[in-house]
## 1
Amino acid sequence: MKFFDCKTAPSARLVRMFIAEKDLDIETIEIDLRSGAHLQADFKEKNPHCTVPVLETETGLHLTSSQGCWRYLEAHKPSAPLLGTNPEEKGLIADRIWRIDLDGFYAIAEAIRNELPGFRGRALTGSINYDQIPELAQRGAARTAHFLDTFEAHLLGENDYVAGANFSAADIMAFVTIEFAGWIKLELPPSAERAHDWYKRIKARPSAAL
Amino acid sequence: MKFFDCKTAPSARLVRMFIAEKDLDIETIEIDLRSGAHLQADFKEKNPHCTVPVLETETGLHLTSSQGCWRYLEAHKPSAPLLGTNPEEKGLIADRIWRIDLDGFYAIAEAIRNELPGFRGRALTGSINYDQIPELAQRGAARTAHFLDTFEAHLLGENDYVAGANFSAADIMAFVTIEFAGWIKLELPPSAERAHDWYKRIKARPSAAL
């Protein structure tokens, strides 16, 4: 198995943390996005979408999303379970992951890629160059603020973790997303005390240092 | 169990088809999006994000995304399997679903909701009103065209189904997305013969009539 990573990419960090929580030892290849390694022909053969993460399985299959990598690794090494062990857990974890990905992670990416000069002409990941849309950067920031403001009420609730009593991949998704929001200087509101306690608990895990 | 559906919403159709393929009989409640039933307090209590689909489980948990509903239902009734039975299948199906959702389904929604007069001030689903961004409608249509143009090469490949030799939820995601693209009059290119054959095979399934 091979893991194509990029230390600075939150998308790849989702898989890096998952691998660490599974205590798996996987050969890791660093893809330097800044020098455009992901747009070169040899990488494009592995992933036509030109993004990290990519996981190459033992049979040579290339999985090119955090979700594909997570599902493969969960089935490959079921312990510790990160995607749930019964219908309710499995459903709620998947639900939270999808919601945080769309309303949090994707909104932050919109805010960043449509504003920072370094992403001019590269407002979306992938093989096609799209121009920045300044209004979309503003909307992305507004959506991110709403995501952070409602995180405690809508996603954490009365639970210790994002999908209930146990740590799961939904916590990885939420933690990486909230640290990603720091790139545009947005954070959990000070009043969200339970959310801050949760954040500190995740931050203390060894996988969070990766 | 209760399924909150809307006959005209592609997001809900994803779950409707999945339920039919599982041969499950679930009490279904129609939510009339046109009259704003999803924005009323009683529905918002079930789903603060004000969207369909919603699945209410037997313990009263509310799952508010196709992904949450699918994972719950797959664990609740494992046959026929729609999310894979071994690590490679599970990984690839999840990978395809995520990709089609983001590059296809979401791009089409961007194109539609940022252009049609009926969505003025409602460019995103949810409880917050966002203005339309005309440039985003154009970008959404361009992304949709790229998705359809590369569907055969990137997603179907040499396989009979989107994630390999067997029908899976990735086919549901692709089929519903391709029919959704019809709303903006975009379709698979005539040259994509294998993709058209695949489409006809899915269209012939009883679940596709729902």
## 2
Amino acid sequence: MRKTGYGQTGCPVVRTLNVIGERWTVLMLRDLLLKGAMKYQDFQESLESISPNTLSARLKFLTEQGIVERRVYEDHPIRVEYVLTRHGRSLGPILAAMRDWGNTHTSQPESE
Amino acid sequence: MRKTGYGQTGCPVVRTLNVIGERWTVLMLRDLLLKGAMKYQDFQESLESISPNTLSARLKFLTEQGIVERRVYEDHPIRVEYVLTRHGRSLGPILAAMRDWGNTHTSQPESE
């Protein structure tokens, strides 16, 4: 755990940042909340510039944290999907607050 | 602006991350929401391991974004304080959601 100042392990915002304080992580949670289940390739398509190493590391971390569950389906070929656990879905209000702020206080560029 | 996948400049979460998607920025907003006004040294004390360059860059960015206002008081010696603008205070619900999640879903370490 990274420490950042005045007894901050005692700060709930720091403890939240220790789980979701990284940009890709937030976008992966957004995708999981919106889509329900995501394959590895779905993340790669959604997060165009993420490297495979970073994506794998984030999925591993989120699984270890109990935020994401890795489901293996015994199809042919085997299918692997990632879904939010109940613990992971509890992050919904943070993402909703971020979405609402973006909608209300920033403007969409007119063209790419 | 960093682009990250499917028309994401059109994604309100991405647009929010473009403003507050950095760990130190979130902790600076936390301090400003809690304390009201912060001097440069107050941030240094709160965010022990932040470098002066990073702190100055973040303050400049947040001021340019209209999130933070730099107030200069003509005392002897001159006093400079940073406060949230009305636009900056609108980020409160995001920080509150992060605090609530940290309080509910993570536990405070028993000792440092």
